[in-house]
Structures are given as structure tokens and as C-alpha cells.
Design goal:
Layout: H1 8-19, E1 32-37, E2 42-46, H2 59-69, E3 75-81, H3 92-100, E4 102-110, E5 113-116, H4 117-120, H5 127-132
Parallel strand pairs: 3-4
Antiparallel strand pairs: 1-2, 1-3, 4-5
Bound molecules: tetrahydrodeoxyuridine.
Residues 24, 27, 29, 31, 47, 49, 56, 58-60, 90-91, 94 line the site of tetrahydrodeoxyuridine.
């Protein structure tokens, strides 16, 4: 395991706080996401929709942007909530976003308890596959 202890309650609180900033007038489905980095920071994000519907930015998009704006690095743990504060599974695209920045022992809170990144996105495509053909 990485050196940082995961405080799931703190991550949940950060995700709920992020969710309260959501801009979701079209779906009325606010989402908040928070993650612990391997060096102990908490980064978060909310969903931001727009009139095109299809160009919606999921909460995880803002989260990975904030990860990089605050020094980059890799993720140790992830927590996502809906508008009621219930655990929400990241959508398929966002699992890919999270995979890109996974730390070696990344875990995610899911509707069925804590899982690893590999359990949530098995047999993933990743940066290593690009290297194979270069
Ligand atoms: N949403 C997220 O922000 N993250 C997810 O992983 C699932 C879906 C947002 C997108 C859209 O604004 C709303 O939830 C309904 O799909």
C-alpha cells in the first residue's frame, strides 16, 4: 500500500462539498468527486453542463484538471457522490480518466464497497499500449 492513509469520511465530505458547486441545469443531477493523491492532497471537482448536452463535463473532468493545476501526481483513492450524497459509480469515460492518473494501489469507493482500479476497469487500455507500437 502507498504511505498515505485513506480517510474515506474526509473524501466523502470533499465530494459532497464539490457537488454543491455543480452546474447541472439540464440533467438536474449534480455530481461531486474527490480524490486523495499519493502525496496526501485532496482534489475535487463537480459536473458542469452546457446547452449542447453532449459536451457535458463530468465531475471527474474537473477533478483531473484540478489535480494538474495543484501540482499533478497520481491518485490513491477516489469518491464520487450524487446530489443526495450517495456513492456514485464513475461513468465509463471517467474510469478511463482515472486510470490515466492511478497510483499503484488506487482504490475507489463504489456502491459495493472499496474496489481497486483494476476491478472497476479491467483489462484497460492505457499509455503503455501506445509505447508498444512506437
Ligand atoms: N456525471 C458525472 O459528473 N460523473 C459521472 O461519472 C457520471 C455522470 C454527470 C454528467 C451529467 O452532468 C450528469 O451526471 C447526468 O449524467
Amino acid at each position: 500500500m502507498d504511505g498515505v492513509e485513506v480517510d474515506w469520511a474526509a473524501l466523502e465530505a470533499a465530494a459532497v462539498s464539490a457537488m454543491q458547486n455543480a452546474y447541472a441545469p439540464y440533467s438536474s443531477f449534480p455530481v461531486g468527486a474527490a480524490a486523495l493523491t499519493v502525496d496526501g492532497r485532496i482534489v475535487s471537482g463537480c459536473n458542469v453542463e452546457n446547452a449542447s448536452y453532449g459536451l457535458t463535463l463530468c465531475a471527474e473532468c474537473a477533478l483531473v484538471g484540478n489535480l494538474h493545476m495543484s501540482g499533478g501526481g497520481l491518485l490513491r483513492a477516489f469518491y464520487c457522490v450524487d446530489g443526495a450524497g450517495n456513492v456514485l459509480m464513475p461513468c465509463g469515460r471517467c474510469r478511463q480518466l482515472l486510470y490515466e492518473f492511478r497510483g499503484p494501489d488506487m482504490e475507489l469507493m463504489t456502491t459495493r464497497g472499496v474496489k481497486t482500479m483494476d476491478q472497476v476497469l479491467p483489462d484497460a487500455f492505457g499509455p503503455e499500449h501506445l509505447e508498444e507500437t512506437r
